[in-house]
Amino acid sequence: MHEMSLAEGIVQLLEAEAKKQSFTRVKQLWLSIGELAGVELEALKFSLDVVMRDSLANGATVHVEREPGQGWCMACSQPVLIHARYDACPKCGVFQVQVTGGDEMQVKELEVE
Ligand SMILES: [Zn+2]
Fold this sequence. Notes:
Hydgase_Ni_incorp_HypA/HybF_CS, nickel, about 30% helix, Hydrogenase maturation factor HypA, about 110 residues
C-alpha cells in the first residue's frame, strides 16, 4: 500500500515546516490530490490516521480537495478533462492524451499553533 509511504512523507514535510516556522502543533491540513495521482483516498486517510498519531499532527483534521485530471489531446489540439492516466480523449476517442495536470498530491494549507 503506497499510501502509507505517502502519509509518512506528509508527516515528514509537516515536521520540516514546524522546524522552519517554529510551530508545535498542526490543527488542520488541506491536501490537494489530483485525480490522476494514483492515490486511493480512503487508504490515504487511514494511513494518515496511523502515522499522525505519534506526530505533531496528532488529532488534526484533514481536508482533501480533488484536482480534476487534465490532459492535452494531440488529435483535437485542445485541453480535455480525463479521469484516468490512460483515458481516451472524451471528445474524439483517440488515445493520444498527454497528462498536463491533476497528477500530483500537495499540502496546500496548514492551520498550526
Ligand atoms: Zn481528442
